[in-house]
Specification:
Two copies of one chain form a homodimer. By secondary structure, chain A is of the alpha/beta class. Chain A has a single domain, classed as Maf protein, CATH 3.90.950.20. Helix content of chain A is 39%, strand content 17%. Chain A has a five-stranded mixed β-sheet with strand order 2-1-3-4-5, sandwiched between helices. In chain A, helix 1 packs parallel to helix 6. Chain A is globular, with a radius of gyration of 15 Å. Chain A starts with a helix and ends in a 24-residue tail after the last helix. At the A-B interface, helix 2, strand 2, helix 3 and helix 6 of A face helix 2, strand 2, helix 3 and helix 6 of B.
Chain lengths: 188, 188
Amino acid sequence: MAADPLVERAATLQALCLAAGLRVATAESCTGGLVAHLLTEVAGASGYFRGGIVAYANEAKIRLCGVDPALIEAHGAVSAQVARAMAVGVRERLGADLGCAVTGIAGPEGGTPAKPVGLTYVAVADPRETTVRRVLWTGDRHENKRASAELALELLIERASALSGEGGPRSEAGPDEPGDGPRASPKA
Amino acid sequence: MAADPLVERAATLQALCLAAGLRVATAESCTGGLVAHLLTEVAGASGYFRGGIVAYANEAKIRLCGVDPALIEAHGAVSAQVARAMAVGVRERLGADLGCAVTGIAGPEGGTPAKPVGLTYVAVADPRETTVRRVLWTGDRHENKRASAELALELLIERASALSGEGGPRSEAGPDEPGDGPRASPKA
């Protein structure tokens, strides 16, 4: 089969994490397990990937990731606050160094004027800080899932690089978004 | 893109579950999130899919699925007993009607003479019973993951059909395996 470029990125992340002794855990809503699937396509993933949560229903976000229900009530499941809480929660619960979370609206249903289809938050938590990136994809459901998974992989690679002291600035990725401000994003 | 036949099977499961009001949760080890990813490729999956756990590390099986560590100690993570406990645990924890679990050795590493690469257990739990199927795939890592995910989908469809009273016998699938006995399996 032709190599999936996202599996190639997963292999890059794996090499970085194994070299630096970093363990990774994932919490996924709109990507529905795709990030974990990509990580585990690479032989040897069990050396650094602890596992993940597919937090589709809010109950899964609350019971498995430890997200405060009040946070979902106040900001909605698709929000920077919930993405952050999912990343922090899964990192702690799975004893990982890096926690990555994705929450968004893959479509075609579920969008609103305030939170349209394609709106997605990707968070990465390490022991010192948690950052969140806000994007707005314009593809179909399948494409939006892939784009979100790719962004999750890139942010994990960035963070793993920084933590392992091997990484320089990544010109195409730009700075992490610390808050919930808007960020225009091209179609992936 | 060409339709993935496994996504077609996920769509069949979704139609069955939505019609019968059945909610599904997944617990995946060797498939690494692939089953959840396939389920969530279908628009409207949130109507019946509660979420899942990617229980790669044993700690994830214990902390997130509620598997008794003594069970892993006694039988190993790749065993009918652990598959059963994962299916029961994820069903209860996510408030689902059907819990599906997959644990196996996708390869290429991790095999032993007693538990070779490709050995996989797939369990399905409903409120009344839990069944486990044992298979031995002979593909590469990617193929073994796909074969296991396909079997998980077929067993979920079988069970959802039975529970919804819509299903007749499925000649190609054969009966569920109640225990841990060997079952020869062709390459998927």
